[in-house]
Amino acid sequence: MSDQLKDAKRTKVLWLTSSYPRNEDDSASIFLRYLAEALANRELDLLVLAPDHHEVRPFPQPYGLVCRHFRYFFPRRLQLLAYGSGILPNLSAAPWLYLQVPFLIVSMFVAAARILLSQRPALIHAHWIFPQGTVAVLLGKLFRIPVVVTAHGSDAFLLKGRLLGLLKRWTVKQCSIWTSNTRATSGAVGFDELSKPHIIPMGVDYRRFVLGDRKSIAKQHKLILLFVGRLVETKGVAYLLKAYALLSEDLRVRTELWIIGDGEEIERLKLLAIKYRISDKVFFLGKLPNDKLPDYYAAADIFVSPSMIEGQGVTFLEALASGVPIICSNVGGIGEIIKHGETGLFVSPNDVDELSEAINRLITDREFRMNLSKTGRKIAESYDWQCVAEQFISLYISILNTAEFRS
């Protein structure tokens, strides 16, 4: 911990986000919860402001961390824009939710302004460029405090259009400092005239995943293929099902495919499993409590995630820390974590045959799997949340120590 914050009065920081765990077992943007808890242990008073939802149930927070939720639509049960599959997939599935977008933005602005007036935080940290970053920059100018904006991937890769492009460009140009979870994410923002971002990845609770208990989950002598993530089209689970169906009967007898997560694609994927005649080998386990995930990773022999778009992919870090070799697409920032032939295997996006061949190779080559596992664990250790938190602490200090904002 830096002496500059250790010896000073606890620094207040306001976070703005469109997603944050709503209860003890929720996995919505769980990486933000882990980062927030790591920062709260570093002499920071952190206040997280996120949208309300009918599943919000307060749970114990560590000292220095407070989470508040703002209402943006009535009745409460109709607040459906955030959470679930994510704002963009939610809008795609239910276009009427576009009506809620201005209410969410205005409500976030008002709720944050009230916090700034009452709590007087030293800086604002917005997660995702739009709308949180844009709201944060406006508030920063109004209250004359610095603003950090972090791009996580979906804001860089998926938010398209002339108006959104202008808003994103203005937001990144006007904030004090911006960060990106990978170089690929920052490159996808695509504005040559912008200042260079600080590349700070999201992390993993390394010790927690290293200590996963395989025996508590795996009751049969099967090789387990595992997917963990939101069940949306861009995750490529439909291709995974087809690739698994292409395996020989002998390999399917020896294996099972576990799919953890929920989302708009769930029913279509179940129908595909029936169509491909693998429904007896594919287990849709739904959304599991976060404290159970390390055991499921430990039970797995191969982690498969053929995403088509990925800013960073925290699940890849969880798999590495658990010692599970990985098969994935080399898209977005994945290549900054996974090394082909060293910690996993790359396949071309949407290439079912190549994906099936990679699965075949790892199933049949146990020695190769073990080598990938050992190397992966070593790499994952450097992404532990304590290391990531220290990078953000240093960033906060550098901003607060600039002449423009020095008190």
From TrEMBL:
Provide the leader sequence positions: none
- InterPro entries on file: Glyco_trans_1 (IPR001296), Glyco_trans_4-like_N (IPR028098), Glycosyltransferase_grp1 (IPR050194)
Task: Identify the Gene3D superfamilies for this entry.
Answer: Glycogen Phosphorylase B (3.40.50.2000)
Q: EC annotation? A: 2.4.-.-
Q: GO molecular-function annotation terms?
A: glycosyltransferase activity
Q: Which PANTHER family match?
A: SULFOQUINOVOSYL TRANSFERASE SQD2
The name this protein goes by in its record: Glycosyltransferase
